[in-house]
Specification:
This protein is mainly β. The protein contains 1 helix and 11 strands.
Length: 167
């Protein structure tokens, strides 16, 4: 099953769920870079040592709002969902074929949860933050069009893609 909002997929969040029976379910959504995220990328591009923060990981949530440029975390935090960025990420032009949002002008952040790490219904949002325990700054914030559920036999890999183009 594949779910998205019908827009171009680069620069988007791709959640790949491997169910206990081996089937794969994909959810995709728009990715809102916050104002702090804009500053982060601008400082990195300028090789400015005065970066405002360092993204450390992602937090998932159960919120039903909408992402804004001023967001600093998810709206409704899902306890135990926090995850550090996978080793070797972020990277440009992610070669992982499951990441349908990858590309030569796209930076990918990846997060992986083993089966049973999260057991929850209605997972609907996420944010890359400066501190996975007590965040004060978010790089981005996103909402899935259709929330998804994870059981004790489901694994999740989350690809958060940021595309850098002029349009």
């Amino acid at each position: 099953m594949k779910q998205n909002d019908g827009l171009a997929l680069k620069g988007r969040v791709v959640a790949v769920i491997t169910r206990g029976d081996g089937s794969v379910e994909t959810h995709e959504c728009k990715n809102i870079i916050t104002s702090a995220g804009d500053d982060f990328y601008a400082n990195r591009a300028a090789k400015n040592p005065a970066d405002t923060f360092t993204p450390t990981g992602v937090r998932l949530g159960l919120g039903t709002g909408s992402a804004t440029k001023a967001d600093t975390d998810v709206d409704t935090y899902l306890a135990g969902s926090e995850m550090l960025t996978d080793l070797g990420y972020p990277k440009v032009d992610d070669p992982d074929s499951r990441n349908t949002g990858a590309g030569t002008d796209t930076l990918t952040w990846r997060y992986s949860w083993v089966a049973g790490a999260i057991i929850q219904t209605g997972i609907s949002e996420g944010a890359i933050v400066d501190d996975i325990v007590t965040p004060t700054i978010a790089l981005n914030h996103y909402y899935f069009l259709v929330p998804f559920d994870l059981t004790n036999v489901d694994a999740l890999v989350l690809y958060v893609n940021h595309q850098f183009v002029g349009v």
